[in-house]
């Protein structure tokens, strides 16, 4: 096997040396070898992609749709996305010039960060949050400013945002907001988003909203978007991975004003050329004829949420009021203090249940663990039983 020439060993992008592997993934791999473990660690639906969506992709392959797609996406998919955003949020985007199709929401994040951030720019990141944000921002040379929301019920308040902007976040260029939240499952209501929009506008910020879980909101809660209040500032990111159980299809999208979208599409074309044809056709089918698919998935997840919430609260866990996505962010027993890593490790080794330490999601996550209920009801029932036995054994 070849060994890299010694004179080339230091000729790399040095910013990569500053990045750490995903601790979420590393912990998941660490516990995966434990026999008979039930993993509630990774945020991936256990549901299957609906049959009509799969069939649309198969038909497209058989039709020899095998040439380059337009760099910003197939026109029919961009039109379907624009129609969906109009239908679900009441926002208007021109499918020709204000929509871009990407390789997953992660690809969308890369496109946006690389389009608006320069080395040294500050971007505000309310935490706890999906930790990949930090690495994508750092590799550009920009600076993520964490905003710990734990004292406000894991919701960013307008007053807290303004306070940060007057101190460590002074001069920030942008803010990214995940709604519904990963890992807490919290949802921002309309009035709060409107108030945040006022602060964002007053401070001349870009806003980026990661709305990948937007279809998965439970109870009387509704999904809203900053695009409903500041469409001239907001860059909306979403995709098909969660609501349509299409994580492996890698299909996301961006909606934003034309002026910034020109740069985003340019970056998208440099990074990927274009998204796979049959995947785009499948996504078009999802939005056009699959409106009931997220509703059906939501019913399954909400039932699981209620089961897990009830069971964990009976065991004495304090929860971060989950309202959306498919996660529960639970405060660990007092016996462990703030040591969520030890708790998660012992739970995996002794009870054979995998959960993710909360500190891996940034400031405010210490002392919590994230549990994904995107797992079968059978697994969740057994996991809850094992957690109960584990807690009884340490009391």
UniProtKB/TrEMBL annotation:
Keywords: Aminotransferase, Pyridoxal phosphate, Transferase. Its cofactor is pyridoxal 5'-phosphate. Residues 36-387 form the Aminotransferase class I/classII large domain. InterPro entries: Aminotransferase_I/II_large, AspAT/PAT-like, NHTrfase_class1_PyrdxlP-BS, PyrdxlP-dep_Trfase, PyrdxlP-dep_Trfase_major, PyrdxlP-dep_Trfase_small. It holds the Pfam family Aminotran_1_2. This is Aminotransferase. The keyword Transferase applies. PROSITE patterns: AA_TRANSFER_CLASS_1. GO terms for molecular function: transaminase activity. It is an enzyme of class 2 (transferase). Belongs to the class-I pyridoxal-phosphate-dependent aminotransferase family.
């Amino acid at each position: 096997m070849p060994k890299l020439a010694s004179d080339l060993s230091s000729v790399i992008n040095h910013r990569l040396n500053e990045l750490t592997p995903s601790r979420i993934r590393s912990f998941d791999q660490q516990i995966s070898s434990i026999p008979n473990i039930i993993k509630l660690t990774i945020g991936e639906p256990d549901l299957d992609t609906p049959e009509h969506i799969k069939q649309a992709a198969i038909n497209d392959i058989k039709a020899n749709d095998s040439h380059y797609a337009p760099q910003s996406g197939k026109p029919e998919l961009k039109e379907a996305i624009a129609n969906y955003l109009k239908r679900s949020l009441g926002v208007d985007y021109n499918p020709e010039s204000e929509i871009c199709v990407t390789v997953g929401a992660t690809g969308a994040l890369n496109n946006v960060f690389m389009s608006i951030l320069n080395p040294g720019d500050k971007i505000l990141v309310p935490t706890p949050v999906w930790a990949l944000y930090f690495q994508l921002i750092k590799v550009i040379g920009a600076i993520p400013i964490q905003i710990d929301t734990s004292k406000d019920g894991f919701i960013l308040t307008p007053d807290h945002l303004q306070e940060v902007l007057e101190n460590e976040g002074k001069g920030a260029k942008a803010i990214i907001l995940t709604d519904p939240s990963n890992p807490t499952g919290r949802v921002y209501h309309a009035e709060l988003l409107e108030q945040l929009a006022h602060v964002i506008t007053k401070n001349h910020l870009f806003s980026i909203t990661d709305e990948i879980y937007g279809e998965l909101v439970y109870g009387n809660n509704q999904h809203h978007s900053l695009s409903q209040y500041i469409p001239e500032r907001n860059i909306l990111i979403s995709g098909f991975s969660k609501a349509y159980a299409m994580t492996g299809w890698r299909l996301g999208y961006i909606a934003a004003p034309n002026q910034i979208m020109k740069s985003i599409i340019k970056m998208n074309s440099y990074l990927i050329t274009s998204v796979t044809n049959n995947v785009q056709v499948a996504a078009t089918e999802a939005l056009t004829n699959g409106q009931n698919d997220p509703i059906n998935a939501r019913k399954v997840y909400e039932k699981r949420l209620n089961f897990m919430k009830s069971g964990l609260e009976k065991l004495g866990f304090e929860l971060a009021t989950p309202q959306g996505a498919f996660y529960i962010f639970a405060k660990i027993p007092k016996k462990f203090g703030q040591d969520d890593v030890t708790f998660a490790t012992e739970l995996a080794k002794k009870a054979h249940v995998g959960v993710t330490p909360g500190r891996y999601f940034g400031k405010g996550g210490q002392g919590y663990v994230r549990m994904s209920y995107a797992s079968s009801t059978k697994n969740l029932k057994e996991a809850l039983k094992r957690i109960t036995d584990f807690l009884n054994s340490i009391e």
